[in-house]
C-alpha cells in the first residue's frame, strides 16, 4: 500500500479494513471500486460495491463501533482518509434532531446486519446512547404543529407608552403557549424550535391573523386613535418574498390602515443590507412602519443604522438598566440624540422603575416599554383597562 499525507493508493485485492477492526478512519473513494463483504455461516457474502465519490467506513467512525464488514479493493483504488475526529466535531455541532435520526438509522442498520450474519451480540451495539433530548425536541415540534392547528397559542400584548403624553400608543405582540401537560413553554424554547424549521412561517401567519383581529376589535370598541401593534419577524420569515404581501392582504381584508401594523427586525439581521433595504422600501411604499429591535446588543454597527431608513429604534433593556450610572446615562443621551438626528423615534425597552422613566423623559426619548408601563396581557385585559 502506497501512503501519502492526503491520499492512499491501494492495489486491487488488498484489504482496506477487516471486520471487527477498530474504527480509526473513514475514506472517500477518489477512484476505483471497493467491495464490502461479511462472513455468514462460515462463507463470505458480498453486501455491495462502492465507487468514486462514495464514503467508505463512515458508519463505524460515527458510532464508534467495531467494523461490521470487510472492505477490499476490487480494482486499483485511490482513497482520501478522513480522521474520526473530523466526523466527531461535526456530529457534536449538528442539530440534535438530525443527530438522533442518523443514530437511529445506524442502529437499524447494525441490527439488520447482525440478523443477517447471526451475530446476536452485535444487534445491541448502539443501545444505551442517550438521545432523549433530541426525541423530546421532535415531540415538542409535533406538539407545536398540533397547537397551531387547534388554535392553542395565545397572543399577548405588551403596552408601549408615549412618554410625553403618558398615553398607550401601541403594543408589542408576544406569543405564549400553555401546553396541556408541560405547562407554560418558554417562548425562547419553542420560537427557537420554530425558527430551526419552516414552522416559523405558519407561526408568524398565526400571530399576524390574531393581531389583525385584535386591531379590528379595538376599532370596534371605539379605541381612538387606533393603537399600532408590533410584530417580531425572524430571519426565515424575511427570506419569504411573499411576507409583506400577506401582511397587507390581511390588513386590507379587514379594512385596517397599514400604519397600525409595525414590523420589528432584530439588530442581528441587518447585516443582509440589500434584503432589509428592499423590505423597508416595500413597507414604506405601503405605509407600514419598521423598527430596529434590540439596538446595542452586541451586533451594533452604525453603518446599517445610517444607511437603512428605520422608523423606530428600540433600545435594548441593558441600556435602560444602566441609566442609573453616569456612563449609562451619557450613552443613552447620545443614542437619543443620534436617533433624533436620523429622524427616527426611540422606544426604550425594559423600563421597570419611575426613575428610569423620568430619566428617559428628560432625555427626550419617545416611547417606553417594560413592566412599569405594563406586562404582556390578553386582549380582554387591554379592553377592560380602557
TrEMBL record:
CDD domains reported in the protein's UniProt record: CAP_ED, EAL
Q: Where is the Cyclic nucleotide-binding domain?
A: 1-108
PROSITE patterns in the cross-refs? CNMP_BINDING_2, CNMP_BINDING_3, EAL
Could you name the Gene Ontology cellular component terms for this entry? cytoplasm
Pfam family, any one: cNMP_binding
Q: Which domain of life is it from?
A: Bacteria
InterPro entries attached to this UniProt entry: cNMP-bd_CS, cNMP-bd_dom, cNMP-bd_dom_sf, Cyclic-di-GMP_PDE-like, EAL_dom, EAL_sf, RmlC-like_jellyroll
What main location does UniProt list? cytoplasm
Question: In the record, what terms sit under GO molecular function?
Answer: cyclic-guanylate-specific phosphodiesterase activity
Q: Where is the EAL domain?
A: 137-386
Localization per record:
Cytoplasm
Protein name, entry field: EAL domain, c-di-GMP-specific phosphodiesterase class I (Or its enzymatically inactive variant)
Q: What is the lineage of its organism?
A: Bacteria, Pseudomonadati, Pseudomonadota, Gammaproteobacteria, Lysobacterales
